[in-house]
Design goal:
Layout: E1 4-10, H1 20-25, H2 31-40, E2 42-45, E3 48-50, E4 61-66, E5 81-84, E6 88-93, H3 110-120, E7 128-129, E8 138-144, H4 147-155, E9 161-169, E10 176-180, E11 183-185, E12 193-195, E13 203-218, E14 221-237, H5 244-251, E15 274-282, E16 289-293, H6 298-304
Parallel strand pairs: 8-15
Antiparallel strand pairs: 1-4, 2-3, 2-4, 5-6, 6-8, 7-8, 9-14, 9-15, 10-13, 11-12, 13-14, 15-16
């Protein structure tokens, strides 16, 4: 098992002698992680073994390591990197790829692929997703390289602007609208959600981009086809409820193409036509304003321009 570096820093020369715990707190490390470092961490100061009780002086080189909690296998996948620095990795996740292994799927997930990439590029990190996408939703995912960075996103309450491309069945009559309807679990289901007054608040802003008339073959005779109208929309999320865009648009009578869970059809695409194409946020470590983009995937392009 490899060892992950949690902290590697030179203490400011002007800092007075301080306790290890005080220095660690200044690095925005969670209480849980501090407890793990205290009980199981490998600590050195200026290359010499140290303990949690060792005092830290200005100018000291402090290095703390911790064995990774995860042991996912490292297997290659087609990893499209949108952005990378010393703290985060942003990838354009393909549709059909799980975020991390489950009890039945152990390989081929984003976590497997990211860990393989780290190993190949001689980086010693774990898989720390800052947010997640459904298996069949494509688009931008941010992965923190350490738990410290992941915790910084939460501690600083970093706000994301998320813009999704979606293709819905039917002609949406309004150029723009706001859906402000609570979402909760559908009674009797552990997967489906629904709009319900007893759910949690959910808001989605929808803007219509284009309308498309497409032809689809009738199953009994491929030489005969019917016409269907699709609407390409962009959705801005103000909340992050499970299946929010899918549920809100289906509730209005415009299910996503390919989303058979919420009333869509599989004639044109074999997964919900939903793509996280734009993400902006303030980087928690550099404080830079970040804007990331991922182009519309081919399967969604193909149904808009057959």
């Amino acid at each position: 098992m490899k060892t992950a570096t949690i902290i590697d820093l030179i203490v400011d020369a002007n800092v007075h002698t301080q306790s290890m715990n005080h220095i660690i707190k200044q690095q925005h490390i969670s209480q849980r992680m501090r407890r793990r470092l205290k009980n199981n961490g490998i600590i050195t100061i200026n290359g010499q073994s140290a303990t949690w009780d060792t005092l830290v002086h200005g100018g000291d080189h402090l290095l703390m390591k911790l064995a990774p909690e995860q042991e996912f296998s490292r297997t290659p996948i087609n990893l499209e990197i949108v952005y990378e620095d010393d703290y985060i990795l942003a990838v354009n996740k393909a549709a059909g790829v799980l975020m991390h292994p489950t009890s039945t799927v152990r390989e081929g997930t984003l976590a497997n692929g990211v860990l393989y990439y780290y190993n190949k590029t001689h980086q010693v990190h774990d898989f720390h997703p800052v947010h997640r996408l459904d298996k069949d939703t494509s688009g931008i995912v941010i992965i923190a390289k350490t738990s410290v960075v992941q915790h910084a996103f939460d501690k600083q309450r970093i706000k994301f602007q998320k813009v999704y491309d979606a293709i819905v069945e039917g002609t949406m009559p309004s150029q723009s609208l706001t859906i402000n309807y609570p979402i909760g679990r559908k009674p009797g289901s552990i997967i489906e959600r629904c709009c319900t007054l007893i759910g949690k608040p959910a808001r989605t802003d929808v803007t219509v981009l284009t309308h498309h008339i497409v032809s689809e073959p009738i199953q009994m005779d491929i030489n005969i086809s019917t016409q269907q109208v699709l609407t390409h929309v962009q959705c801005v999320l103000h909340t992050g409820r499970t299946h929010q865009i899918r549920v809100h648009l289906s509730h209005l009578g415009f299910p996503l193409a390919g989303d058979d869970l919420y009333g869509g059809h599989l004639d044109l695409i074999q997964r919900q036509a939903l793509h996280a194409g734009y993400l902006s946020f303030t980087h928690p470590m550099t404080q830079k304003h970040m804007e990331l983009r991922a182009p519309l995937p081919e399967d969604m392009k193909n149904i808009l321009n057959p």
